[in-house]
């Protein structure tokens, strides 16, 4: 084509498009926001306080309001169509009332005012913003009833009215039916308890895809709708924390054909999970924090696209099916804290997309090496978190554990895994958290651990590791912040001038035989938050900087000197001090209000405790646990407990404290354990103690308390598990009120002056009927009680008299059941109800005045290990049921009126003969033999071959004749001789008088004694 030729039509078309585009861009660049909309925004700003200058760009100096912060305009028309004023700081935000000037923004499609501090109710004029497609007023400070006018927003596609402070409510949701285009509806933490038509309205929204209604109090208003139609659109559903107890009202959920995401967590759902026929597109299901006690449903394994499963904190009792192999898309399986048993199927280690596997706190068994000994390459590639702690797994870690590519967490704590720690764990370059505590690992701590450059937490405490730990073990651990290795047989050998590469927050080196405080610890003093050097034999004075560490455990060492006042610290963080079993002396230190746990037991502190308890530096103190046992403290308990309202544990046992228990003790509403044993306390047990209604343990033994057991103890302190009042001067009857203590597992009232009968209602001690195991308690090494009021565990122990001795129980205290009423003045029969306590381990009723038979039902007490009924007035035969008590290893029935044969069994024959002396018993282990009819054999029982029967007959014949002849001679003489007759009858009369007087006197004494006891 020549230079003067005309352009082609195609060239003209492209020139036209270029010119038009350039014109439009030119126009768009020159369009400013409309003046009326600019004025509306200025008015909106002026009605609000803006302390953080979030709207600082909103001023007249900037002509174009489309350039203001949070304002977005249409590029073609210049109209404001988006207003994004969400506050991203919890303490910032706009303050004031929402100005109706926003109504001038006729083209506004998007309005986000969330997380501000507006005042009053949501204004009804919001419903006049007719162009709105997106409205977010979540956590914006509004309160009261949501206006119905929002239902006028017919173009709305997303509505967010969530409120974390539950200040909003609705009286009906009928107005929502008009918003037919709604796709996303968020109304969490809004009170919907008055909206009885929630489900019906929801199913009138044909476009609804995502529904979030967390914590809306729906449990009383959602009906059971099992035949809902038009439910195919909802794909994402959140109904957590509603208080639902049954699936009956929720069956409509499982008809949602397109449901992808389901969250029903934090409810109270019980029973089996409903079967599902249509909901097979699920990718995410969360039923955690409920009360489900069924099995994992089979339909779950048919959801091919399932990616996330969480049933944590339930009571599921099933096994994990090998059908889990069907869930090829699964990336998260969370079954934390259930009762799932059986073995972990090997198929789980071949899921190629699995990133998080959490089976913590279940009852899983089997060999770890069996399940994770042949893992697929894709599983090794994908997995990021493996948590299997608090199960019953055994076996060993295979070398394949060192082949994970992206693993960040290994938690195998509190199992029975044995063997050595694989050396190739040092290859896990992504590992951040390695927890192997409380297992049975042996061998050395591998030096390769020192190559884990991303490792932050290393827990190997409570194993059987041995060997030397050197600088090499920490060579590249620059990110390490938690190191816990107590309770092994490790020895630390590092250069005295060693500078660690890390800054530790937690250091636990208990039982490392350190003998001295490592010098390198001082390099950590700016970061350290927890330090445990317990049981190391360290002597000397505690470094001054130790007293500022928030958690300090120096127990079971040889530290000496006085402890300075603990009134300073690192800010307002709670602090704990464990300094027991050392050689500290002097007076008790004063403490700061931030110290929550203080254990100074088993030292040599002296003087009184008034200056400690009555310190006026602070009005109240935050101490939760106070242990001062086994010191040399003197004086009285001052009446200052009102300053310590948070106390849950008090142990001042084994000191020289005198006086009485002050009434202010009754002000300790959260008190769970009170130990004042082995002091010199006297007076009566105060009734004010009944105000401590949360008490679980009371031990006031070995004092001089008198008077009666406080009336109402059974109805006021209903959670009591341990009641030990032995070796005092208490008297009166044991009231049946005590039978209300259903949780009681240790009752010791021995060595007092209680009289009367044993209450027959003791069968109400259901704590001695229920089988228990250590697995039932969420315990660490010595933890026993759990406080629902302070949300923590605390260590507990008790001295229990059983098997003729006194034993200290701590780690297994939760399993101990004991009744000891010995050495009192109790009488009457042994109540049959005692034999109903089939989990009772020890029963001691010795040294009383009990009568009657030993209950036959005692043979049903299969867990009985110790039985002492000695020094009573029991009679009859020993029940045969005792012979089958296989757990019985201590028995004392001595000094009663028992008769007959000792039941024959290996168990009883192995008892000491002293257990049966002082009775009329025969048979092993005693030396006296028994005849077939339980009587000592005489000569008439002897038989000889031939003529035996004839000789026995002649013997009786001659004996009878002799008796008749003699009697006839006596009678004839008395008839003939008058003097003999008179002397004989005078003798009979004299004997009758003596017997009559003796019997009457004895009877009178018995009646008088009975009368005194019953008065």
Automatic annotation (TrEMBL):
The chain crosses the membrane at residues 954-976. Residues 85-340 form the Disease resistance R13L4/SHOC-2-like LRR domain. GO terms for cellular component: plasma membrane. Residues 1-28 form the signal peptide. Keywords: Cell membrane, Glycoprotein, Leucine-rich repeat, Membrane, Phosphoprotein, Repeat, Signal, Transmembrane, Transmembrane helix. InterPro entries: Leu-rich_rpt, Leu-rich_rpt_typical-subtyp, LRR_dom_sf, LRR_N_plant-typ, LRR_R13L4/SHOC2-like, RLP23-like. It is found in: Cell membrane. It is a single-pass type I membrane protein. GO terms for biological process: anatomical structure morphogenesis; defense response; plant organ development; response to other organism; signal transduction. Residues 35-74 form the Leucine-rich repeat-containing N-terminal plant-type domain. It comes from the Eukaryota. PANTHER family: LRR RECEPTOR-LIKE KINASE (PTHR48063), LRR RECEPTOR-LIKE SERINE_THREONINE-PROTEIN KINASE FLS2 (PTHR48063:SF98). Belongs to the RLP family. This is Uncharacterized protein. It comes from Buddleja alternifolia.
């Amino acid at each position: 084509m020549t230079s003067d030729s005309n352009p082609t039509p195609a060239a003209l078309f492209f020139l036209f498009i270029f010119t038009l585009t350039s014109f439009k861009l030119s126009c768009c660049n020159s369009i400013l926001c409309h003046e009326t909309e600019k004025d509306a925004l200025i008015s909106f700003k002026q009605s609000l306080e803006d302390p953080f200058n979030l709207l600082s760009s909103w001023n007249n100096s900037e002509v174009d309001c489309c350039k203001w912060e949070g304002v977005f305009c249409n590029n073609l028309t210049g109209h404001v169509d988006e207003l994004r004023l969400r506050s991203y700081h919890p303490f910032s935000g706009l303050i004031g009332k929402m100005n109706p000037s926003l109504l001038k923004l006729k083209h506004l499609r998007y309005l986000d005012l969330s997380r501000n501090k507006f005042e009053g109710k949501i204004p009804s004029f919001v419903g006049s913003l007719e162009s709105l497609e997106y409205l977010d007023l979540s956590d914006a400070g509004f309160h009261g009833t949501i206006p119905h006018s929002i239902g006028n927003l017919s173009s709305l596609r997303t509505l967010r009215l969530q409120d974390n402070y539950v200040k909003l409510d609705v009286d009906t949701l009928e107005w929502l039916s008009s918003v037919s285009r709604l796709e996303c509806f968020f109304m969490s933490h809004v009170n919907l308890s008055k909206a009885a038509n929630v489900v019906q309205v929801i199913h009138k929204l044909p476009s609804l895809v995502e529904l979030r209604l967390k914590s809306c109090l729906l449990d009383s208003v959602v009906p059971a709708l099992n035949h809902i139609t038009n439910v195919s659109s909802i794909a994402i559903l959140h109904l957590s924390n509603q208080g639902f107890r049954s699936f009956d009202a929720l069956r409509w959920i499982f008809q949602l054909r397109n449901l992808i995401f389901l969250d029903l967590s934090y409810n109270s759902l019980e029973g089996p999970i409903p079967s599902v026929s249509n909901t097979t597109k699920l990718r995410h299901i969360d039923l955690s924090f409920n009360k489900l006690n069924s099995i994992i449903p089979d339909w779950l394994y048919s959801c091919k696209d399932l990616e996330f499963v969480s049933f944590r904190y339930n009571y599921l009792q099933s096994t994990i099916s090998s059908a889990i192999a069907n869930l090829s898309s699964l990336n998260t399986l969370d079954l934390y804290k259930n009762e799932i048993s059986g073995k972990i199927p090997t198929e789980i280690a071949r899921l190629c997309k699995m990133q998080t596997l959490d089976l913590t706190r279940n009852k899983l068994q089997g060999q770890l090496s069996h399940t994770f000994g042949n893992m697929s390459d894709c599983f090794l590639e994908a997995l990021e978190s493996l948590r299997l702690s608090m199960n019953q797994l055994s076996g060993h870690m295979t070398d394949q554990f060192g082949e994970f590519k992206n693993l960040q967490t290994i938690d195998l704590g509190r199992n029975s895994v044995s063997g050595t720690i694989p050396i190739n764990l040092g290859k896990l370059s992504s590992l951040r958290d390695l927890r192997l505590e409380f297992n049975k690992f042996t061998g050395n701590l591998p030096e390769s651990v020192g190559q884990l450059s991303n490792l932050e937490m290393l827990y190997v405490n409570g194993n059987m590791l041995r060997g030397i730990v050197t600088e090499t073990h920490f060579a590249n651990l620059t990110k390490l912040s938690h190191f816990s290795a107590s309770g092994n047989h490790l020895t630390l050998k590092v250069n005295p001038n060693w500078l660690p590469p890390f800054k530790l927050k937690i250091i636990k080196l208990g039982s490392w035989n350190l003998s001295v405080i490592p010098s390198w610890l001082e390099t950590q003093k700016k970061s350290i938050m927890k330090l445990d050097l317990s049981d190391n034999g360290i002597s000397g004075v505690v470094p001054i900087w130790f007293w500022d560490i928030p958690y300090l455990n120096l127990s079971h060492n040889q530290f000496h000197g006085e402890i300075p006042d603990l009134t300073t610290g690192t800010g307002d963080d709670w602090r704990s001090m464990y300094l027991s079993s050392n050689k500290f002396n002097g007076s008790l230190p004063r403490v700061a209000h931030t110290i929550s746990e203080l254990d100074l037991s088993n030292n040599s502190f002296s003087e009184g405790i008034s200056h400690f308890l009555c310190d006026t530096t602070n009005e109240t103190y935050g101490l939760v646990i106070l242990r001062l046992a086994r010191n040399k403290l003197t004086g009285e308990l001052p009446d200052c407990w009102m300053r310590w309202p948070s106390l849950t544990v008090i142990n001042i046992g084994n000191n020289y404290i005198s006086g009485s228990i002050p009434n202010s003790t009754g002000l300790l509403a959260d008190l769970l354990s009170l130990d004042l044993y082995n002091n010199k306390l006297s007076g009566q047990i105060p009734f004010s103690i009944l105000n401590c209604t949360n008490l679980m343990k009371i031990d006031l033994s070995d004092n001089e308390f008198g008077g009666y057991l406080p009336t109402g103890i059974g109805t006021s302190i209903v959670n009591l598990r341990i009641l030990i009042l032995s070796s005092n001067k208490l008297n009166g009857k044991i009231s049946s009120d005590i039978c209300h203590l259903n949780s009681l597992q240790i009752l010791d009232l021995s060595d007092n002056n209680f009289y009367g009968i044993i209450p027959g209602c003791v069968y109400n001690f259901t704590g001695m009927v229920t089988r228990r195991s250590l697995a039932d308690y969420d315990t660490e090494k010595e933890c026993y009680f759990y406080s629902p009021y302070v949300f923590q565990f605390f260590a507990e122990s008790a001295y229990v008299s059983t098997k003729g001795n006194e034993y200290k129980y701590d780690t297994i205290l939760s399993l101990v059941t004991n009744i000891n009423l010995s050495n009192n003045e109790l009488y009457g029969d042994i109540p049959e109800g005692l034999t109903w306590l089939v989990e009772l381990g020890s029963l001691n009723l010795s040294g009383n005045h009990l009568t009657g038979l030993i209950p036959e039902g005692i043979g049903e007490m299969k867990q009985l290990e110790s039985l002492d009924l000695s020094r009573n007035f029991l009679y009859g035969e020993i029940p045969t049921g005792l012979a089958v008590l296989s757990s019985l290893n201590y028995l004392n029935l001595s000094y009663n009126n028992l008769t007959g044969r000792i039941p024959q069994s290996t168990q009883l024959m192995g008892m000491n003969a002293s257990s049966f002396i002082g009775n009329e018993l025969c048979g092993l282990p005693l030396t006296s033999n028994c005849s077939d009819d339980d009587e000592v054999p005489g000569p008439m029982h002897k038989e000889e071959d031939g003529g035996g029967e004839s000789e026995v007959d002649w013997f009786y014949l001659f004996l009878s004749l002799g008796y008749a002849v003699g009697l006839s001679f006596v009678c004839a003489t008395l008839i003939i001789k008058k003097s003999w007759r008179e002397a004989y009858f005078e003798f009979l009369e004299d004997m009758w008088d003596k017997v009559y007087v003796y019997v009457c006197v004895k009877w009178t004494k018995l009646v008088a004694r009975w009368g005194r006891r019953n008065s």
